[in-house]
Amino acid sequence: MVEEHSIYEIAITRMPGVGAQLTRQLVSYCGSPKAIFEASPGKLLKISGVGPKLIQNIQQHAKASLVQAEEWVKRAEAEDVKLLFYTSAKFPDRLKQIPDAPTLLYFRGNANLNQRRIISMVGTRQISSYGQTVTERIVDDLKPYNVMIVSGLAYGVDVVAHRAALQAGLPTIGVMASGPDIVYPAVHRKYAERMLSNGGLLTENPFGTKPDAPRFPARNRIIAGMSDCTIVVEAAMKSGTLITADIAHSYDKEVMAVPGNITSSVSEGTNYLIKSLKAVAYTSVQDLVELLNWDLEDEAAQKKKASSPAFDPTEFNEEELKVLQVLQQSREEHMDNLSWKAQVPVSLLASVLLGLEFKGIVKAMPGKRFVLL
To answer: Which terminal residue of the chain has fewer beta carbons within 10 Å of its beta carbon, N or C?
Structure first.
């Protein structure tokens, strides 16, 4: 059965002149993608960034966009592709925080894209025997921490990381520069198929999209944006890998780099990242654990588990439980982020938070932030 909301979600992302940022503005103002198509020109003109030309675009292309969107929704259902609009609870929360995040993702697989710990691993396509050994060791050392491994399914470090994750029993996500129906390079299809049962394949590109060169840097921002830390194993000085590291750095994400032989061309990039203080040196899994405070998190979780009972779901309504589930994971959230993550409209969220404050569960902080007590 074709879901109507998915048709409108796809259609708005394919509308000429409507980028990701404007899409979010339109949805925020109108309430839903469907409401955008039904809104009067007068209402749309009140939105910042919307002018007569854009309204004319929407009117001219609405029918064709909706027809194409319906075809893609049917195809997604037939090929078991999940359509994740940015308002979906299954959309990666970490991506919602970056300014140039996509508004729609196509996902095949079974992974939780909001898993507690997600690490990206990237590097050269011309991986050395040292790089392969290190990549495999890093993944193997991450097994006790229940980490999800994200990479780009490319030759070299990417596929070694995916393969090692499958061997270790860790979920792994391949972020693609193509449509959900095209695995590139095709030689990695056998790994891609295995990843569907423990991880998955993710892309912002619609069906039929070929992996053209400009799509790879765009793909890299998703790799960097959906993880807690990007680990660069090997990289030349001029490479897409260093672009990914720069993107992660610009998002205020942690970046680590594996030191390498100073005579090796594929270690020039990692050594440069460390020397220029753009990355922390990775010499063992303990470096990563300490950088991300996993040891302190685990210690605090154990203490909390021992000292405080779980919430009794019968004491809270549906919206309150959604908010509590988000705050249990992050402890503190801005009101806008809380609305996205909990899928509770801002107009309703204020009263929900007030009710939780009266119950002594949540405390309001300066700057519209709320913390779980």
So the answer is: N
Prior bond of 206 cis (ω within 30°): no
Q: Which among 247, 163, 224 has a CA at the least distance from the CA of 199?
A: 163
**DSSP-H helix ranges across 79-188:** 93-96, 129-141, 157-168
Tens-place pLDDT, residues 159-168: 999 999 999 9
Q: Label the pairing between strands 280-281 and 254-257.
A: parallel
Mean pLDDT of the chain, nearest integer: 90
Beta strands 199-203; 104-109: pairing state: antiparallel
SS3 (DSSP) at 197:
coil
What integer is the mean pLDDT of 290-303? Answer: 82
As a whole number of angstroms, the distance between CA 153 and CA 158 comes to 5
The model's pLDDT over 64-79, given as tens digits with 9 standing for 90+, comes to 889 999 999 999 999 9
| Distance (Å, whole) CA 245 – CA 254 | 9
Q: What is the pLDDT of residues 90-116, one digit of tens each?
A: 999 999 888 889 999 999 999 999 999
CATH 1.25.40.10: does it fit domain 309-372? no
Phi, psi for residue 90 in degrees, rounded to 5: -90, -5
For residue 344, the one-letter residue type is V
Question: Where are the extended beta strands (E) located within the chain?
Answer: 82-85, 104-109, 118-122, 148-151, 172-175, 199-203, 229-232, 254-257, 280-281, 332-334, 362-365, 369-372
**pLDDT given for residue 242 in this prediction:** 93
C-alpha 171/C-alpha 168 separation (Å) is 9
CA distances (Å), 87 to each of 20, 152, 341, in order? Answer: 13, 24, 8
pLDDT digits (tens, 9 = 90+) for 241-271: 999 999 999 999 999 999 999 999 999 999 9
Count of alpha carbons within 13 angstroms of residue 321, beta-carbon side: 9
Task: Give strand ranges (E) for 204-266.
Answer: 229-232, 254-257
Position with higher pLDDT, 273 vs 53: 273
Q: Within a 13 Å sphere around the CA of 194, how many CA atoms are in the beta-carbon half? A: 16
Architecture of domain 108-294: 3-Layer(aba) Sandwich (3.40)
What is the CATH number that goes with domain 4-78?
1.10.150.20
- Please provide the size of the chain in residues: 373
| Domain range list for the chain | 4-78, 108-294, 309-372
